[in-house]
Specification:
Helix content: 10-25%
Radius of gyration: 21 Å
Oligomer: single chain
Distance between the termini: 48 Å
Structural class: alpha+beta
Largest sheet: 8 strands, mixed
Order of helices and strands: HEEEHEEEEHEEEEEEEHEEEEHEEEE
Strand content: 25-35%
Number of domains: 2
Length: 384
């Protein structure tokens, strides 16, 4: 049976399993994001945060909580598989990546996520601990979707680790079908030796305080404010990685510490210079927000911008001596400044995962709620 036909047969079960969300109530203290005008002691105003849907699955035999803001697929995979990937993006309210994830399936950048119709998904690696001190070289927030189905006559049971999935496959109890669908799932929480991602707050959220209203689990994350096409862009930065042994390793770790991001020790090594990444411009000697080279338009599963990727290669922008610094808020303005000899760009091999939450052109990511820092539950006075 061809891959497209196998997808058609299992698509309904795949979708119902992949968008399942459970309720959890955890909390962590707020820590300001690096490079933004925020501090914890209240001396300066803090930036807004965003509430994002939280998914519940398993890793290493215990619970794992994660977000899924991005879904992509190899565009040559066939119409049925592409439609399935788009349906997954729609189920999560995720940004759809039409082309830029095409090189990721079976690459060193991705890890396996096992998707069931009978239980929560199983992640093959988690950061230990979550955040900038992660020492698990096997962790990546990029996951290749593997469909897991129980074979006829097998006793369905709960599988909560990669080892258990592999053992069940070897025993002929389950069939595992790899797909070319890639999901970006940043791990927010896992059991020891994991923990909770610093600066994240896991909350129960309701769209209104009405009695009997639906309640879901969401995570509150700090937003960064930058620019796209000379207008404001809001994004999150849950992941920072670098090529092992790079001269930029120390800087990458500093960035991860500043953003309270998961540090990705090895998995992002092959990404710089590939079609999977776009450029983010970070200014070294002038205070302004970072500039993104692309954005999802519209934000969410209907994104049609083939340039957009949530994976960004860091480009350092420095004003040259004798030049008067000014705000540059688009890639075109930066290119003109380079041509005029105003600035110098240093391309690094640091890759940051920054999912775009809002731009004026693309709107707000479906399912996301931007709230004030003192309004973590998204009451009406803080929503935007």
């Amino acid at each position: 049976m061809g891959q497209s036909k196998r997808f058609s047969a299992s698509r309904k079960a795949f979708l119902s399993a992949f968008v399942a969300v459970a309720l959890y109530s955890l909390a962590a203290g707020l820590t300001p994001a690096h490079g933004q005008n925020t501090v914890e002691n209240g001396n300066k105003p803090e930036l807004p945060r965003v509430l994002l849907p939280l998914q519940s699955g398993f890793a290493r035999g215990g619970t794992a909580l994660y977000i899924t803001p991005e879904v992509g697929v190899d565009p040559s995979a066939g119409a049925d598989i592409i439609a399935t990937a788009q349906a997954v993006a729609n189920g999560f309210g995720a940004n759809f990546i039409p082309t830029n994830f095409s090189s990721l399936p079976n690459s060193p950048a991705v890890r396996n996520i096992f998707v069931f119709s009978t239980q929560g998904n199983v992640l093959s690696a988690t950061p230990t601990p979550p955040g900038p001190d992660n020492s698990n070289a096997n962790y990546s927030p990029l996951w290749q979707v593997n469909l897991v189905t129980w074979n006829p006559g097998s006793q369905v049971s709960l599988l909560t680790s990669t080892a258990e999935v592999t053992a069940a496959q070897a025993a002929g109890e389950v069939t595992v079908t790899p797909t070319p669908i890639i999901v970006e799932c940043s791990v927010i929480f896992s059991l020891a030796p994991g923990g909770l991602l610093p600066a994240s707050k896991v909350v129960l959220d309701a769209p209104s305080p009405a009695v009997g209203g639906n309640v879901s689990s969401k995570v509150s994350l700090p937003l960064q404010v930058g620019f796209f096409n000379s207008r404001t862009a809001f994004y999150i930065t849950p992941e920072v990685g670098v090529t092992p042994g790079s001269s930029f390793t120390s800087l990458a770790r500093t960035v991860a510490q500043g953003f309270n991001s998961n540090f990705v020790p090895t998995a992002f090594a092959t990404l710089p210079g590939t079609g999977a990444v776009d450029d983010i411009f970070v200014f070294t000697n002038f205070a302004q927000g970072n500039v993104l080279a692309s954005a999802p338009i519209p934000a969410g599963p209907a994104n049609a911008d083939t340039d957009y990727s949530p994976l960004w290669q860091v480009n350092l922008v420095s004003w040259n001596a004798g030049r008067k610094p000014r705000a540059l808020t688009s890639q075109a303005e930066i290119s003109n400044a380079v041509a005029a000899g105003d600035v110098t760009i240093t391309k690094t091999d640091i890759t940051v995962e920054c999912s775009v939450i809002f731009t004026p052109e693309g709107g707000l990511l479906p399912g996301a709620r931007i709230v004030d820092v003192d309004d973590q539950h998204g009451e009406a006075n803080g929503d935007r």
